[in-house]
Amino acid sequence: MASSHFTPEQLTERFELSSRIRNIVYGLVGVGVILVLIGAFLAQSGDGHHDDSHGEEHAELITENPTIHTVANDQHEDGHGEDSHADEDHGHADSAHSEAHGDDGHGGGHGHHGPTWVTRVLTGFYMSNLYFITIAMGALFFIAVHRVGNAGWQTAIRRVPEAMFGWLPFAAVGALASFLFMDQIFEWIIIPEGQDALIDTKRAYLNPTGFIIRSIIFFGVWILVARMLRRLSTREDTLGGLQNFEKSLGISAGFVVFFAISYSLFAIDWIKSLEPHWFSTIFGVYTFAGSMASAMATLTILVYFLRRQGYMKYVNDSHAQDFNTYMLGFSIFWAYMWVSQ
User: Fold this and answer.
1) pLDDT tens-digit readout, 136-162
2) What is the DSSP secondary structure assignment for residue 191, as one 8-state letter?
3) Measured between alpha carbons, how far is 3 from 241 in angstroms, rounded to an integer?
4) Residues 44-78 as b or e (16 or more Cβ within 10 Å = b)
5) pLDDT value for 97
6) Tens digits of per-residue pLDDT, 239-296?
7) Is the whole model's pTM more than 0.90, yes or no?
8) In whole angstroms, what is the distance from residue 122 CA to residue 190 CA?
9) Which long-range contacts (CB under 8 A, 24 or more apart) does 245-250 make?
């Protein structure tokens, strides 16, 4: 089937980095590592300085102007003395709020201390891994939905999104590493039970055990489907016939349904739960739109780069118009979801 459209040279075409590009990539990796180390050093050296200086300035201000402290206390007592006794409901509301958010009014786990430099570094790693996961999942959905729709135009470029979702096993390793420092990132873990009424109502879902189990299931199925679709795709090109196509069609149809459920829950677990007090009923769709827009942008850049390097000469302007249209369409769709929130 595919062999009638592609020459044997095109079917076995493989991209290889030139020495110049390889040196650039290694150089950028080295610069990235250096910047990470510099950022960690600066974050470490800057921990607590802002809070301490603020406290010292406040103490000096009160020492130099003791009347300020007295007047402030008098105003506080006037504002909450008779009024608070006259309105018991208001007093009970304040008391309940203080109990829900800790004695300091900012939550038991994050009221007194800001994020440490270690937390900043781990959070940067966490967000970077999330970014590449969204691109890989957008590429995987792109392949699956076009297989279900029996679209023929994407055959010329499908090796690129297949390479993009090849990142998923590495992303899974990063996700497993993230399990080790969940208690430094997620507020619903940091705040002890009983100190935040709203978070307590969500602990049946937001708990470390459920989070880890769902994540393992999601990544396991995603990686399995990605490997199966990739293997069937190469067999279809080399062996021809409809057997591998029909197998990939069935797998893709089931995956599209699983993707809609799993990716929405993944977005809630890994992104939305970072702000457990915030509500959104369309966050799964919003994340999906962003994934597809990012994946299409990455696909466009890679295809144009490969064509300039002399690869994929069979990709014509019609193909370019199609995936550029996808990029524009999902960018508009993402913007609409963003405004809707």
Assistant:
1) 999 999 999 999 988 888 888 888 999
2) S
3) 10
4) eeebeeeeeeeeeeeeeeeeeeeeeeeeeeeeeee
5) 42
6) 777 888 889 999 999 999 999 999 999 999 999 999 999 989 999 999 999 999 999 9
7) no
8) 15
9) 245/1, 248/147, 249/147, 249/148, 249/150
